[in-house]
Design goal:
By secondary structure, this protein is an alpha/beta fold. The protein has a domain of 307 residues: 3-Layer(aba) Sandwich (Rossmann fold). Helices cover 43% and strands 10% of the residues. Strands 2-1-12-11 form a four-stranded mixed sheet. The chain has a four-stranded parallel sheet with strand order 5-3-7-10. The protein has a two-stranded parallel ribbon with strand order 4-6. Helix 4 packs parallel to helix 16, helix 10 runs parallel beside helix 13 and helix 11 crosses helix 14. Keywords: Glycoprotein, Golgi apparatus, Membrane, Signal-anchor, Transferase, Transmembrane, Transmembrane helix.
Length: 454
């Protein structure tokens, strides 16, 4: 063999080894759960490797990881998914530290089921110490704060990092179990829409025998005089009402103060200070981009697979109230409307403080989401590449990522349970299922009212 072929062979061998080492270094450097590197740092440490991510999100592997790789089957390069060349935005990103302590108040029937998967995924990917119910169900404790036996302590006996199961907001209890830098987050939706959803989901018309010979729409029947119907329920000594101020109740509001608007306004103002962000369902995309910015998360972290989860059709879902009916309900649920107005205003005030490209990022998010959902509906492509933009690096998504987006709550809770090595499940008496036990809770409230009259 001549000298030329030998040199060529040695050159190829050295190049191959170097590439293999670089690939290994790359994989080990970007495991989900390790401290995220800034985009500038990634460029420096990768020594010329292209800044692209291969998200291998197979739930069968607890060590999910993000890998830089060459793109395949990329989206059309001529399609504009985001505004490129925002140097200032990238420089700001290098100084941004992701927040990894959060409490997500999962408000009932407000779109929380649709939004919660992003918190579940983030907690699992970052190995966060999640507060989970001892029965591993969707609710930890409601309406009272968790008590000993309702949940498991962390292995080290320390504070928790994250909460995403149903639990009513109790500032004192939460501050005692979560770090000082915890971000408090929640979601609410337009009160009348929420009222209709609760009316259907909790079967209120049937349980309070809401009937009329001339009218089939329970909304119209109820709003003729909502005060005459005894819809207050009672559980564990706490009163609540699924037709009145129910979202605000999940945020810790005492039902007894429903008619004291001066006290209510002060309580809502305090909530506005306590919470980093309250997502408004009617402006879901805008809220998620604001969440991404305030939490210093990435586009990948806020991707959602479905437009809505746990959505149910019913006959009066699209019913629009008459002006008189709307006025009546506004009086009946005045505290709820004050809450919604305050958080809606707060959302737009926070958005106004963002950089001028905020709505461009919202548009980018919508386009990316559309591509991801289209990819996950089926097709021959094994992976989808989301091009880099001013707001995200380039992501390479394998088809297994679609499985992650479709993962439901019980699976996420089980995965986190296993990851945290919590003890085996044990039976817990769960008296707080408002849907299945509403009739019993309504009766309890009526008995209590009668006893107090005597």
């Amino acid at each position: 063999m001549g000298r030329g072929p030998v040199v060529a062979f040695l050159g190829l061998f050295v190049f191959g080894c170097a590439a293999l080492l670089a690939s290994y270094w790359d994989i080990e450097s970007f495991k989900i759960g390790s401290q995220p590197l800034s985009w500038a740092m990634r460029s420096a440490v990768s020594s010329g490797l292209q800044n692209k991510r291969d998200i291998k999100a197979d739930l069968a592997d607890a060590n999910e990881r993000v890998q830089l790789t060459e793109p395949k089957d990329a989206l059309d390069a001529n399609e504009t998914i985001g505004v490129h060349s925002s140097q200032q935005q990238r420089q700001q990103a290098t100084t941004c530290v992701p927040k990894k302590h959060f409490v997500w108040i999962k408000v009932h029937k407000a779109g929380s089921q649709t939004t919660t998967p992003l918190f579940e995924r983030f907690a699992f990917n970052n190995h966060l110490k999640v507060l989970l119910g001892a029965h591993r169900g969707p609710t930890i404790s409601w309406p009272l704060p968790p008590r000993e036996g309702d949940y498991f302590q962390t292995k080290d006996g320390g504070l928790f990092d994250a909460l995403y199961s149903h639990s009513r907001y109790n500032k004192t209890w939460l501050e005692a179990h979560f770090p000082d830098d915890t971000a408090y987050l929640a979601i609410v939706k337009e009160p009348f829409t929420h009222f209709k959803s609760c009316l259907h989901y909790y079967s209120v018309p049937r349980k309070i025998k809401l009937k009329s010979k001339t009218e089939k729409n329970p909304v119209k029947i109820f709003l003729k005089d909502p005060w005459k119907y005894k819809t207050e329920a009672m559980s564990q000594g706490i009163r609540w009402d699924k037709t009145r101020n129910a979202q605000l109740f999940d945020l810790g509001f005492p039902m007894e103060k429903s008619d004291d608007m001066e006290w209510t306004e002060k309580y809502i103002a305090q909530l506005d200070q306590d919470f980093l962000l309250v997502i408004i369902l009617e402006y879901h995309d805008e809220s998620l981009i604001l969440l991404k910015r305030l939490m210093c998360w990435e586009l990948y972290d806020i991707l959602l697979g479905a437009e809505s989860r746990n959505s149910r059709p019913y006959s009066y879902k699209s019913y629009k109230p008459t002006p008189e009916e709307e006025t009546t309900y506004r009086k009946y649920a005045a505290a709820e409307y004050a809450m919604y107005q305050r958080f809606n205003q707060s959302l737009w005030e926070k958005i106004s403080q963002q950089s001028p490209d905020f709505f461009q990022e919202v548009d980018n998010y919508r386009k990316v989401t559309k591509h991801v959902r289209g990819f996950c509906k089926g097709g021959k492509k094994k992976e989808l590449v989301i091009p880099a933009s001013a707001w995200n690096p380039e992501y390479k998504l394998p088809r297994s990522f679609c499985k992650v987006l479709k993962t439901d709550d019980p699976v996420w809770r089980r995965k986190s349970w296993q990851q945290l090595k919590y003890p085996p499940l044990h039976k817990v008496n769960i008296p707080f299922n408002a849907r299945t036990n509403l009739a019993k809770f309504l009766a309890a409230a009526r008995r209590d009212s009668e006893e107090n009259k005597e």
